[in-house]
Design brief:
- The protein is mainly α.
- It has 3 domains: 208 residues, no CATH class; 51 residues, no CATH class; 50 residues, no CATH class.
- A 3-stranded antiparallel sheet has the order 1-2-3.
Length: 334
């Protein structure tokens, strides 16, 4: 994926999914703080810390210390306004630290990245083995979604701060909004910098590792048979402990087939007088199943049932529906 997605981004997930995605981000931040809290670099995992990351870490800890000091001084009775300001500063510095992790460029090895180091540690199961791809892939998807969401948040803050700075310098609100960078440009710039698997001339970033590993996990899941939930006990179908006799299944499928035929003939083929007792309306050309066959001499991939039908039934099968509509004033009026 070396081009930005053309689909609009939204973070519409189930609450449980949002909770799991947020949990991955929290674990990454906690891992980073605990590692950077070790004064001796030799005791840390072998990732590299940039100056921007070290500065963001120190600023975050300073804001956290200030919040803790004021909380203790007020004995837990901080005014709501003060507490909201302190928490907002904590969120802002946490976002800044995460963005330095996301932007980190690696020269020699992907494992120089804090994010890659975190994923390696997270992938170790309690028994000392590695978690399988079907466990790790959702974590990677969570990191991708959270990263895109926080890029939007960062772009909003950059624009809002630029507008406030413009107003403080004497510009009107309208002039400040006009001079401030646009959110779309900010998001595109950050996306091309951090969220693409490869761009010409770009340095390696942790998201390249994440996207590549996630693609592998998705491909592995698509090509690996998973244990099923359906089994048979004589003529009974067993699904997750529920038992369904075969005659009942046939009856269920028969009712679904009748409903589908009704939708097909009345809704799609415009046979308003169709009855479920009819095999096939006489106005619809019959399909010559016996004449339809694949051409073994054709090396093209795929087999088109429609093309075979047109060849076997003739050109009239192409135009009968439009002719039916054209010859019916009632259908034409619709």
């Amino acid at each position: 994926m070396n081009t930005a997605s053309r689909k609009p981004f939204n973070f519409r997930h189930k609450q449980e999914t949002k909770r799991r995605y947020a949990s991955i981000l929290k674990q990454l931040i906690i891992y980073t703080l605990r590692c950077l809290d070790l004064e001796d670099p030799t005791e840390r995992p072998p990732f590299k810390v940039s100056r921007q990351q070290q500065k963001a870490y120190e600023d975050l800890m300073a804001v956290g210390d200030e919040l803790e000091d004021q909380w203790k001084a007020a004995r837990g009775q901080l005014p709501d306004r003060v507490l909201a300001q302190l928490m907002e500063g904590l969120k802002r510095e946490t976002l800044r630290l995460f963005m330095t992790i996301l932007r980190q460029q690696t020269k020699d090895s992907e494992h120089e990245s804090i994010m890659v180091s975190f994923l390696c540690v997270l992938s170790i199961a309690p028994d000392g083995l590695w978690y399988s791809y079907d466990t790790v892939t959702p974590w990677l998807s969570g990191l991708v979604s959270i990263s895109r969401l926080l890029i939007l948040r960062e772009a909003h803050l950059i624009r809002w701060n630029a507008i406030k700075a413009g107003v403080a310098s004497g510009l009107s609100t309208e002039e400040a909004e006009l001079n401030a960078p646009g959110i779309l440009n900010l998001v595109e710039r950050r996306t091309s910098q951090c969220m693409l698997s490869s761009t010409p001339g770009a340095e390696a970033t942790p998201m390249q590792y994440v996207l590549r590993l996630r693609s592998y996990g998705i491909a592995a899941k698509s090509n690996t048979a998973a244990p099923g939930h359906i089994s048979w006990d004589n003529l009974d179908l067993v699904f997750k402990g529920n038992r369904l006799p075969l005659p009942n299944l046939a009856q269920l499928l028969q009712s679904s087939l009748i409903a589908a035929r009704k939708v097909l003939f009345q809704g799609l083929l415009l046979q308003k007088d169709y009855s479920v007792l009819d095999e096939q309306p006489v106005t619809i050309p019959a399909i010559p199943w016996g004449k339809m066959q694949d051409n073994a001499n054709d090396d093209a991939l795929g087999y088109s049932v429609a093309d075979s039908l047109y060849q076997a039934a003739g050109e009239e099968s192409r135009t009968w529906l439009i002719s039916l509509i054209w010859n019916s004033p009632e259908l034409r009026a619709k």
